[in-house]
Amino acid sequence: MFKSKAxxxxxxxxLFNSKMNSFLSVVIVVILFKFLSYFYAxxxxxxxxxxxxxxxxxxxxxxxxxxKEKYNFILFxxxxxxxxxxxxxxxxxxxxxxxxxxxEKNWKKCTLILWALLFLVSTILMGGGIFSLPxxxxxxxxxxxxxxxLSVVGIFVSYPLGxxxxxxxxxxxxxxxxxxxxxxxxxRGVPMISLLFMSSVMFPLFLPEGVVIDKIIRAQIAIIMFxxxxxxEVVRGGLQAIPRGQYEAAEALGLxxxxxxxxxxxxxxxxxxxxxxxxxxxxxxxxTSLVIIIALFDLMSTMKxxxxxxxxxxxxxxxxxxxxxxxxxxxxxxxxxxxTLEKKFNRKGTLT
Amino acid sequence: MNFLKSEKNREYLWQVLFTLSIIAFFTFILRNTQSxxxxxxxxxxxxxxxxxxxxEIGESIIxxxxxxxxxxxxxxxxLNTVKVAFIGNILALALGFIVGVTxxxxxxxxxxxxxxxxxxxxxxxxxxxxxxxxxxxxxVFPSVRSALNPIxxxxxxxxxxxxxxxxxHWFFNIxxxxxxxxxxxxxxxxxxxxxSLERTGVARKIFLPTLLFFILVSFALWLxxxxxxxxxxxxxxxxxxxxxxxxxxxxxSLLIGLVLYTSAFNAEIVRAGILSVDHGQxxxxxxxxxxxxxxxxxxxxxQALRVAIPPLISQVLNLTKNSSLAVAIxxxxxxxxxxxxxxxxxxxxxxVLLIMLVYLSISLSTSLVMNIYNRSVTLKEx
Amino acid sequence: MNQVIEIKNxxxxxxxxQVLKDINLNVKKGEKIVICGPxxxxxxxxxxxxxxxxxxxxxxxxxxxxxxxDNVEVIESTRKVVGxxxxxxxxxxxxxxxENLTLAPMWAKKLNKNEALEIANKYLDIVQIAxxxxxxxxxxxxxxxxxxxxxxxxxxKPEIMLFDEPTSALDPEMVKEVLDVMTKLAEEGxxxxxxxxxxxxxxxxxxxMVFMDEGKIVEESSPEEFFNNPKSERTKKFxxxxxx
Lengths: 352, 382, 244
Known about the structure:
The structure holds 3 protein chains of 3 kinds. Chain A is mainly alpha-helical. Chain A has helices spanning 5-14, 19-45, 53-58, 64-76, 85-102, 109-127, 144-169, 174-189, 192-206, 215-241, 244-252, 257-272, 274-287, 299-307, 316-348. Chain A has a domain at 136-349: MetI-like fold (Orthogonal Bundle). Chain A contains 15 helices and no strands. The longest helix of chain A is centred in the C-terminal third of the chain and has 33 residues, at 316-348. Chain C has one domain: P-loop containing nucleotide triphosphate hydrolases (Rossmann fold). Chain C is 38% helix and 26% strand. Chain A: It comes from Halobacteriovorax marinus.
C-alpha cells in the first residue's frame, strides 16, 4: 500500500495508533477533502478572476475582481490616487524598521533614533506641505496607514506610560499607589469601545470652548489610555520577577531610586516580559479595528465602505477574507516572533 | 532647605503635588463640560432615565415598548448582555477545553487541526469575525422559505437560527431549577466527601451521586407530570417559522463570533496548563498502571486547571466586555441601547459613565466570585 | 576616640516581632569584627542597619559621626563609604563584569567613564578576575561571582566593608578563594564587619568577636577568649554545634 516503510510507520504512529485515532483520522480526512474541494470550486473553478460586477453576480464562486477593483481604496482610503506612493513608502520604511528592530543585536539607543526619524519622515510624507509635496489633510488618511499609525503611535506612547503606571502601582507612596491601581483596574474592567465613545462624545466637552482636537487624535488618546493599563500589568509582572537582592545591591552601591530603576531593575524586568508585551501589542493592533464604531477610516472601515458600493453589493465574504488575511499576516508574524523569543529566553535560563 | 532632604517629607511633597494636579485636571475638565453642556442646553443628571424612550428594541427578554422609559430600555439591554455573555461563556469554556486537550492529541491530524483553529481565530480581529458571521446570515443563508436544514430540528435562514425545543409544559420549565438543585447537591456531596476523607482517609464519590440525584429527581417528576414527551418543532407558517426557539441573526452571529474567538484563547490557556504539569507526574501515573486517558483525567487535568483558572477568569471577563461589540452588528446589548439613547438625548457624560459603571461592576463581581472559587481549589500546601 | 561606627540602644521590629533588642556596638577605624550566632538571631539585620537597607525604630546609628536618619543625602553619602557584600552576590545579570564594577562610580560618584574603568580594572586585578572582565555574571562560578561582588563594592573606595555571610551560598571548594580576598583586604587595614560562620577566618582576622542570639548581643570578646573561654552557656552550646 505505502511506498516507503518510513511513511507507513509514521502513519501508524501518528494517525492509526488506536481504534479511536484511526476513526478520527478517517473522519478528518473526509471532512478536509470535502471542504477543500468546496473551497477550490468557490475560489478557482466557479470564481470570477477577470470580468465585471455583472459576471460576478452570475457566478456562484468568489468575486476576485471585486478585490482587484477595490484594493486601492481598501488599503489607502481617500488618499489622493496620484500621491499613493507616499503611504506605500511609509509602510515599507516602517516594516523594514520593524524587521531591523526585531534582532536582539539591534536593541540599542541608535535604533530608537531611527524610530524617531521614521516618525518625522512619515509625518512629512503623509501630510506633505514641504519639499514641494502637495498637502494631504489628515481626514483623507485612511486604510492600512491609519491602522498602522494608530498602532505604532499607540505602542510608543503607552509603553512608557505603562512603565510609569506599573512603578506607581508598586510605589511606597500610598496616594500614588492607590491612584495607579484604581486607574489600571478601572480601565481593565471596561470594554475598549466605552473609551472610544468617551473620546468621540465626551472629550470635546472636556476642552475649553473653541479648542478642537482632530478625531484621529482623540481616538489615539483613547487607545493609549486603554493599552497603557494592560502594558502596566505586563510590566508589573516583570518587576515582580526581579529578586529583592537586585534592589538592595543597587541601593547599597549608593544609587538613588531613579538610577536603580533605570540602570538595574527595568532593563531586566522589561526583557523578561518581552513575550507578553508583544502579545499586548498584537491585541492592540487588532483593537484598532474598533475605531470603525466611531466612524474613523481605518482598514476595517474602508473595507465596509467598499462593500457598500451599489455596483458591488453582496461580496462581503470576499472582502472580509481579504482583510482578514492582512490582519492575520501582521498578527501571526508578531506572535511567531514572541514565541521564538520566549523559547530563546527559556533555553538560556538567565538573561544576558 | 533641610526639609526636603528627608525622604518622608519628599514623599509627602510628591503626593501633595500629585493630588493637587489631579484635582486641577478634573476641575478643568468639569468646568469645561459644565459650560459646554449649558451652552447646548442639556441638563446634566440622570433624570432623563425616567423619560419615554421612543425607540424599539429588536429583541428583549422583558416586555419593552417604545413608550417605556430609558431605564427599562437600558435594563433590557443589560439583560441581553447578560444573556449572550452567560451562554457564550459556557460554550467558549467547553469548546476551549476540547480544543486545548485535542491540540495535545497524539493524532497528528487532530493536533494540527486544533492548532490551525487557534492560530487563525486568534489573529483576526473579533469585530471582523462578527461582521463575517453576520454577513453569512444575512447574505449567504437563504430566505425562510428555503431555510437550510443541516440536522433535524435546526433551520438556518437569513432570519436567524431556529431550533427544536421542549414544549411549554411545566415539567420542562422547572428543569433548570432541578439543574440548580443539582449544583447545590454537588457541593453537599463534595463536603461529605472531604469529611469522609478527613475521618477515614477514603474520599467518597462526588460526580456519580450528583448525576444520580439529577436523573432520579427529573425522572420522578417526569412520572408525576404524566410522561410529557412532545417537543416543539419549528414549522414554516407563512413567511416565518412557528414553534421552537428562535435566535436572531444578530444574536447568533454575536454568539458564534464570541464563542469561537474566546475559545481559541481558552484553548491556549488549557494547553499551557496541561503542559505546565511536571513530566514526572506522567511518569508516576503510568508507573502506577494508569493508561493515557486515565492519567489525563485523574492526574494531569486537575493540576492543570489550577494553573489555568486565573487566566480563564480573565477570558470570561474578556468575552463579557467584548460582547459590547454587539453595537457593530445591531444586537441590542447594553452598549447598543445606551448608544441609541445617547444619540437621542445627548446625555453623553451620563451614558458613557453608566456603560463604564455597569461593566466595571460586572468585572469586579465576577473576579470576586471567581477568586473565592479559585481559593477553594488551590493546592493545599504547607 | 576614633569610632567610625557607633550603634546605641538600637531596636528594630518586623511588625510585632522584635529582631534587634537594645544593641550597643562601637567599631574603631581599622577594626575587624566578626559577628556570629544561630540563624534568626538578627546578625544580618544588624549590619543592614549600618547602611540603612533596614530602617530601625529606636536608638541611633552613627557612621563617621553622622547619625543615619531618613535624610536622603546622608543615606546616599553613607552608602558610598560603606560597602556591602551579600550572601547571594546580587550581581546585575544584564551587565558584564566590567559594567557591574563601573556602574556605581559612574552614576553614584559621577566619575567619567575612563576614571571608572581605571578603578574597575585595578580592583579586578586585586581579586584576580581581570581575564573575565567582559563576561556576564551567569558565566562565572560562585566563587568568582563573590570576588566580583567584593571588587564592585571596593570600586566606590569605601572606608568600611560589611560582609553578610559571603561564603554561605558557595560550594565548599570555592570558599577559600573568597576568604583569601577578604584576608588580604583585612591586612590592608580596612574596617570590616563580617557576619560569617567561618571560624578559621575569624580566628585569623578578627579583632573582636560578637555573638548574637535572639536579637541581643550575648557576648563580645577577643577571639582568644571567645574560642577558648566563652562565658555564656549559649555561646558554648553554639560553638559546640559549629565546631564539632
